[in-house]
Specification:
- By secondary structure, the protein is an alpha/beta fold.
- It contains ten helices and 31 strands.
- Strands 1, 4, 5, 6, 8, 9, 10, 11 and 12 form a nine-stranded mixed sheet that branches. A six-stranded mixed sheet has the order 18-21-24-27-31-30.
């Protein structure tokens, strides 16, 4: 089979690939943000949800057969995918299908990433793919999966693991691998207490991105073997990959920037701090993640809302925003918004100061509020005169304050009976 590509897509290989997005996780490190939604459904970037990034990468890569496996509080995630991702042509064999946890092979729910896939092995067989691309549904990045699938075929690999260099001090949160000169993986440890650095780079570790390409026959064989192992936790990183290293060809695919060849943009937005930081990075003049890139668009469900509006130009009551992203449907009424990101339908009433903050959809900020370094959840109604982000001791009495001082505010904390999604 030829693996040559003209342009961006490796079309024959991607047509023969089924993508499986693992989107069932809660994301407990996001604290109250995931009380009512799964982590992949968390809002990001002013108009998107995290799940939109792996989905968009698939479509832009030419992979048009996509299964999304859900489990934890998936209603808002299901609704978003149904509304925004129904444009593929079923008549052409293209689809984004939602597959909820159904106890298909046992009486338990998904107990690990490998278990989530093996419980749907009959569905994968029905699609009859040559290759299976397994993706985490909770990371933010742009990636052409076609080049990774091509590398998998060219190397004759049984499994290819997408990898990226991360600072050694945070590597304990990832699967860490050691590779030889041909990028064959010789060691893989899931979330090690003492991660091993890359040879020649003592401050970096080579971490798994949670992206795997399997040749389908190999995947089935390993999944069924793992299912019957009573000592397994049924996880790709903890069990499947380490067990295959000695007996199979397990290779790493370094994720690089296609233009510079250097480190590419990839974020695990799994904490309040990392989610806040990744959102506010987008307000920069030239952020690493270019949401204005017409060559690699991020698709999503597009709400029909009016343009953003800024009203009043009086001294002391001027509506404006600077170094900020303001989505459609927002009204900034006689208030100042600085270095912040506002999602659709946010309303900021007069005499407010909003700075270094992320406001999710349909937040309403009353008059005379001062908000700094905050992440405000969807549908919060901030009372008149509220001050957030200026006194951490006071903030901790009402809200969640992250290790880096980001104040997370949800409707529940405000005593409001909004069920968020």
């Amino acid at each position: 089979m030829s693996t040559q590509s003209s342009g961006r897509f490796v079309s024959r290989l991607t047509r023969e690939t089924l993508a499986i997005i693992l989107a069932g996780g809660r994301g407990s490190r996001l604290h109250q943000l995931t009380d009512w939604r799964a982590k992949p459904a968390v809002h990001f970037g002013g108009k998107f949800r995290i799940i939109d990034f792996p989905l968009s990468n698939c479509v832009n890569s030419g992979i048009r057969r996509i299964s999304v496996l859900t489990q934890y509080k998936s209603h808002s995630l299901d609704r978003h995918v149904q509304r925004g991702w129904g444009f593929l042509g079923g008549e052409l064999g293209e689809f984004v299908e939602l597959i909820p946890a159904q106890q298909r092979l046992s009486e338990s729910w998904y107990v690990g990433t490998a278990d989530a896939v093996v419980q749907n092995i009959d569905i994968i067989r029905r699609h009859n793919p040559e290759y299976v691309l397994i993706l985490a549904g909770d990371h933010v990045y742009k990636m052409d999966y076609g080049t990774m699938i091509a590398a998998h075929v060219e190397r004759g690999a049984d499994i290819t693991v997408g990898c990226i260099e991360v600072p050694l001090e945070i590597a304990h949160a990832f699967g860490v691998m050691d590779v030889d000169k041909d990028f064959r993986i010789v060691k893989f440890t899931e979330k090690p207490k003492n991660p091993e650095p890359i040879h020649g780079k003592p401050d970096k570790a080579l971490a798994s991105m949670g992206i795997y390409v399997f040749s389908t026959k190999v995947l089935f064989r390993e999944l069924l073997k793992d299912r019957d192992d009573p000592n397994s936790s049924h996880d790709f990183g903890k069990d499947i990959i380490p067990s295959m290293i000695k007996s199979h060809r397990v290779t790493a695919f370094p994720f690089r920037d296609p233009v510079s060849g250097g480190d590419a943009y990839w974020r695990d937005v799994g904490t309040v701090d990392s989610l806040w930081e990744a959102n506010l990075e987008l307000t920069g003049i030239s952020p690493e993640l270019d949401l204005y890139d017409a060559e690699w668009p991020i698709w999503t469900y597009q709400e029909q809302v009016a343009p953003a509006k800024f009203v009043f130009n009086d001294e002391g009551r001027r509506g404006y925003a600077v170094d900020s992203l303001i989505a459609g449907g927002c009204i900034i009424s006689g208030s100042a918004v600085k270095h912040s990101l506002l999602f659709p339908r946010v309303r900021v009433h007069s005499f407010c100061e909003i700075e270094d903050s992320v406001l999710f959809p349909s937040v309403e900020v009353g008059r005379n509020c001062k908000i700094r370094k905050a992440l405000i959840d969807r549908r919060c109604k901030i009372p008149d005169g509220t001050i957030i982000g200026y006194d951490q001791e006071e903030d901790r009495k009402r809200f969640h304050v992250s290790p880096k001082g980001v104040v997370l505010v949800t409707p529940d904390m405000l005593g409001q009976d909004e069920i968020n999604g």
